[in-house]
DNA sequence: AGCGAGACTTGGAAAAATTTTG
DNA sequence: CAAAATTTTTCCAAGTCTCGCT
């Protein structure tokens, strides 16, 4: 550029800064700023500097901006605008406390904040509530109010923006009255509320069920000449949908037209959903036409709502027609939509072709490289196989031809290559994919503490010392006492020590010096002040920041485990044959990176080394992988976080599949019952296995290698794991499952199953498989014949979720929130028990129980005393002084008071006893696993909405983030 | 059909953070 | 306010299931 004679302008630099900063190259950006004057031959001014700070802050580098700002390396004196930018930067990072520090500094140094400064800070404080639904709103509201007060004291009037910010918080906090107060305050001060202001208040009122008040505001708004937006109306419509107020919704819809407010796409979608759920298809039709006319829609959501609505009302014919239309308009129906329809369209699936979903057929046709005419023929032949049920003959006929027609159209539109939004490549997961790679563990830092061998200090190289330390720090885990662990550790360590090394025998090793050193280090860390610790944490966060995020098709997504596992000793579960083996350090040349084509490939963090390979595979979702050094047949992957769209989508798909099973379950159960006596041994075993999986929520049970812990699942059960309890129909089941967790259960089963198991066991020795003709592949192949996509694990998801749904549906009115939460936890516990989710007994459990028992004894003592006094008072004698009393004279001890006290004490005893029982029961039960993996979050969210339980009582921060996709579920949702 | 590679979900323990208690 | 108890987060092991090959 320089050579071409063009002088770079400051504008050029602006773009350069932006690019550099966007790419995370903040140092370079600052360097460039430094160099700017030399190139532009123009003095950089204050504005350039503010721009630099602003850009840094915008991209989340508030800390760098702070350094630049505080460094005073530049000639510019701070001013209000610069401070405002800094405050903005820290607020953006969601660190209002730092922002406030800047604010105070600014005021102290005599710079007058303006309304922008205040709004930025206010927004920062209030933003918290958006990001962290669990925050205490009261505190935030108080803070915001204080800031508003301070503003006024300083003579700065809050403007519309300020009010909008606080109104938003009230909205989130469900504080309709505060919302209304603020609104009138605004009017008093002569600030004209905008559409957004009014909408905020209305939203708050609606979501709190105060529809009348909301309507009043709406009228006021119109009277004041502010035209409501579709969003304003949507607040009402959403509420009407929840309450099934068809008439009100209709009335409002008319009113909207009168006010000449054009509904938005989401208005239409809400209404379509509302009325199709209420089975008012004529109204749906009207709305649908309006929507088309207005040109706002339909989109894929509209179609999905309509199609499901029609489907639920068993109007297959129409629903198929809309599938056609949808595809024709370039929207790909969800697999689940097609599966449902297809299911309605088929009966017994004897023909293999019959089990294909429309999509599968479509793909099949695409794969076969046929001419168009040939494809058509084949498709028609396939459709002809569709079975027509006796009950649904009329609908079915049309359906078959509709589907046939749909497929034709797909082909047609394909060949014309129109604007189809279909996934062109099968299994394509992304188009663009950018990330900054992974973090390798830091190199080993030798400590030089010498261990003893045969009582003498020994020299160790850093490599040898590293492995010795790994063992030393595990001294007080139970691993360190296991012979297998020690044996494997010694074998691997000896290789590193070398043949000539003095250390030969484990029993002569004394690791205590290293252990003590390690304890000491740990203590030192504990001694750190809260401030120090915070600083350390911040530092780490800063380092990790660039690895924490990836961009998938332009969307920012959180990365999960971007840290490569550090070397260590393998800690297998149960009796794992490889426990104690050295888990090597992973070198970059073992790591394969997957990233979008053309994206900057993350640099290898170790100089002179390189990645094993860089791939651009868009059919997978991993960022990196390497071979598991402990088991070379397996891999370790780096994936996105649970909050990512990829994980969210597949989570949702999982639960939709389980819900689909609900429609099939009766048939499937009938199917396996029928085969309990099948003469074909494999079929019989499949049916019994399916029964156990369905009834007891067992896992499938894949085959395992000899070099893994010896655990089983359903298909791999050994004869000794299941015994028949004589003279009953009970089975005693006892085995080690996943993670070597013990499964123990004695259950009554179908007499035919009892008998069949007896037959399977006959003639087999201990160690042989109960289901010898079976493996998970065969089982799943069979299940797939009964329902598209069905596998063994779907039963676990299905049974867990349906159990929660049923248990939560019991009547729980007239209870306070805490009691409702107990109801939820109890249901959760039942599911955890069903899935056999266990945990090891908390260390302090025994002591805790003792304490509770102690309390009960004490309370019983008090009770005795009270009862004695009651007797005495009744007989007219003076009451005795009781231990538990406060020593005041007991003149006014009437029998009534004593009786009340007795009642209270009894309640207390009962409560403590309940606590004890609960604690005992939960001692070894883990509730978390089912919550994260098996319970459809929509059940919980909908339940919370119905019973006005804040969702934060049920889901913690990470679960809320993970289940973001489920939060807007309709309150009437049932699994 | 059977097998091994590959990819993604599920799972408990331990560490860290937060809340309660004394 | 520190210690204890409890909850949340991190870590990584251990499953399930699919796909492509023979």
Plain-language structure description:
A hairpin with a 4-residue loop joins strand 13 and strand 14 (730-736). The strands form five sheets. A four-stranded mixed sheet has the order 10-9-11-12, with no helix packed on it. It is mainly α. It is built from 37 helices and 15 strands. 56% of the residues lie in helices and 5% in strands. The protein binds a DNA duplex (22 and 22 nucleotides) through residues 477, 561, 563, 565, 570-573, 576, 620-622, 625, 628, 630, 633-637, 639, 647, 650-651, 654, 699-702, 704, 708-709, 711, 713, 737-741, 775-778, 780, 791-793, 837-840, 842, 844, 848, 926, 928-929, 932-934, 956-958.
Shape assignment: globular
CATH fold topology of the domain at 10-242: Serine Threonine Protein Phosphatase 5, Tetratricopeptide repeat
How many alpha or pi helices? 37
The poorly predicted ranges are: 129-135, 346-424, 883-889
> According to CATH, what is the class of the domain at 10-242?
Mainly Alpha
Q: List the strand order in the largest sheet.
A: 10-9-11-12
**CATH architectural name of the domain at 10-242:** Alpha Horseshoe
Estimated share of beta-strand residues = 5-15%
Q: CATH homologous superfamily of the domain at 10-242 - what is it? A: Tetratricopeptide repeat domain
Distance between the termini: 64 Å
Main sheet record? 4 strands, mixed
Helix content: 55-70%
What structural class results from the helix and strand content? mainly alpha
């Amino acid at each position: 550029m320089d050579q071409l004679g063009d002088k770079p302008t400051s504008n050029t630099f602006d773009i350069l800064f932006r690019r550099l900063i966007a790419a995370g190259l903040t140092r370079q950006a600052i360097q460039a700023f430094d160099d700017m004057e030399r190139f532009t031959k123009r003095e950089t001014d204050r504005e350039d500097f503010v721009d630099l700070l602003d850009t840094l802050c915008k991209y989340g580098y508030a800390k760098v901006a702070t350094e630049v700002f505080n460094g005073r390396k530049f000639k510019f004196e701070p001013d209000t605008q610069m401070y405002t930018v800094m405050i903005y930067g820290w607020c953006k990072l969601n660190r209002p406390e730092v922002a406030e520090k800047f604010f105070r500094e600014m005021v102290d140094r005599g710079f007058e904040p303006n309304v922008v400064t205040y709004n930025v800070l206010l927004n920062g404080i209030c933003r918290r509530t958006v990001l962290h639904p669990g925050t205490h709103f009261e505190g935030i509201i108080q803070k915001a109010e204080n800031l508003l007060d301070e503003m006024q004291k300083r003579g700065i009037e809050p403007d519309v923006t300020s009010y909008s910010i606080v109104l938003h918080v009230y909205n989130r906090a469900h504080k309709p009255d505060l919302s209304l107060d603020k609104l009138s305050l605004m009017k008093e001060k002569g600030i004209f509320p905008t559409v957004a202001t009014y909408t905020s208040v209305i939203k708050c009122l609606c979501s709190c069920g105060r529809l009348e008040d909301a309507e009043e505001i709406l009228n006021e708004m119109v009277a004041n000449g502010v035209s409501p937006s579709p969003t304003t109306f949507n607040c009402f419509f959403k509420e009407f949908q929840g309450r099934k107020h068809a008439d009100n919704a209709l009335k409002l819809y008319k009113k909207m037209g009168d006010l000449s407010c054009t509904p938005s796409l989401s208005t239409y979608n809400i209404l379509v959903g509302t009325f199709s759920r209420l089975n008012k298809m004529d109204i749906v039709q009207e709305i649908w036409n309006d929507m088309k006319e207005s040109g706002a829609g339909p989109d894929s959501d509209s179609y999905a709502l309509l199609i499901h609505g029609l489907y639920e009302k068993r109007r297959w014919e129409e629903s198929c027609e809309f599938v056609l239309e949808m595809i024709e308009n370039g929207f790909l129906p969800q697999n689940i939509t097609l599966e449902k329809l297809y299911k309605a369209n088929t009966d017994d699936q004897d023909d293999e072709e019959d089990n294909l979903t429309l999509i599968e057929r479509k793909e099949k046709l695409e794969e076969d490289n046929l001419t168009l005419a040939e494809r058509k023929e084949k498709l028609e032949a396939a459709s002809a196989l569709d079975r027509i049920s006796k009950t649904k003959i009329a609908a079915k006929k049309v359906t078959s031809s509709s589907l046939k027609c749909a497929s034709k159209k797909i082909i047609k539109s394909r060949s014309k290559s129109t604007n189809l939004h279909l996934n062109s490549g099968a299994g394509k997961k992304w188009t663009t994919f950018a990330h900054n790679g992974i973090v390798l563990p830091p190199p080993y830092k030798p400590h030089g503490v010498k261990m003893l061998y045969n009582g003498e200090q020994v020299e160790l190289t850093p490599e040898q010392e590293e492995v010795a330390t790994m063992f030393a720090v595990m001294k007080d885990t139970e691993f360190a006492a296991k012979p297998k662990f020690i044996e494997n550790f010694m074998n691997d360590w000896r290789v590193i020590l070398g043949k000539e090394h003095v250390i030969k025998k484990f029993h002569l090793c004394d690791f205590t010096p290293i252990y003590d050193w390690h304890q000491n280090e740990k203590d030192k860390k504990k001694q750190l002040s809260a401030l120090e610790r915070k600083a350390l944490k911040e530092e780490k966060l800063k380092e990790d920041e660039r690895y924490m995020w990836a961009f998938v098709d332009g969307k920012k997504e959180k990365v999960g485990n971007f840290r490569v596992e550090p070397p260590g000793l393998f800690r297998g579960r149960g009796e794992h044959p490889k426990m104690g083996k050295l888990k090597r350090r992973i070198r970059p040349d073992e790591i394969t990176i997957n990233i979008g084509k053309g994206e900057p490939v993350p640099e290898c963090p170790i100089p002179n080394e390189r990645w094993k390979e860089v791939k651009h595979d868009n059919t997978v979702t991993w960022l990196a992988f390497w071979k598991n050094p402990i088991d070379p047949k397996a891999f370790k992957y780096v994936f996105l976080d649970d909050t990512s769209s990829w994980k969210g989508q597949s989570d949702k798909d999982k639960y939709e599949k389980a819900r689909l099973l609900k429609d099939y379950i009766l048939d499937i159960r009938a199917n396996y019952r029928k085969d309990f006596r099948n003469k074909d041994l494999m079929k019989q075993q499949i049916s019994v296995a399916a029964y156990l999986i369905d009834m007891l929520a067992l896992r499938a049970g894949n085959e395992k290698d000899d070099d893994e812990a010896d655990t089983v699942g359903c298909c791999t059960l050994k004869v000794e794991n299941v015994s028949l309890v004589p003279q009953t129909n009970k089975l005693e089941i006892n085995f080690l499952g996943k993670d070597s967790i013990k499964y123990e259960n004695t259950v009554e089963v179908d007499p035919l199953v009892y008998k069949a198991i007896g037959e399977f066991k006959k003639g087999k020795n201990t160690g042989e498989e109960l289901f010898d003709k079976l493996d998970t592949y065969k089982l799943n192949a069979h299940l797939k014949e009964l329902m598209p996509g069905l596998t063994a694990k779907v039963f676990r998801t299905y049974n867990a979720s349906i159990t929660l749904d049923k248990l939560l549906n019991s009547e729980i009115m007239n209870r306070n929130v805490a009691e409702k939460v107990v109801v939820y936890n109890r249901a959760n516990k039942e599911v955890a028990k069903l899935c056999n989710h266990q945990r090891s007994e908390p260390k302090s459990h025994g002591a805790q129980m003792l304490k509770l028992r102690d309390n009960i004894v004490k309370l019983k003592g008090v009770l005795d005393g009270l009862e004695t006094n009651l007797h005495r008072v009744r007989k007219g004698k003076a009451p005795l002084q009781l231990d538990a009393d406060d020593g005041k004279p007991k003149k006014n001890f009437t029998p009534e008071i004593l009786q009340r006290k007795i009642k209270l004490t009894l309640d207390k005893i009962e409560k403590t006893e309940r606590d004890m029982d609960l604690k005992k029961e939960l001692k070894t039960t883990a509730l978390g696993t089912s919550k994260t993996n098996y319970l459809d979050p929509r059940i919980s969210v909908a339940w919370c909405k119905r019973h006005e339980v804040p969702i934060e009582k049920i889901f913690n921060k990470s679960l809320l983030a993970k289940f973001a996709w489920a939060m807007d579920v309709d309150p009437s949702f049932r699994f």
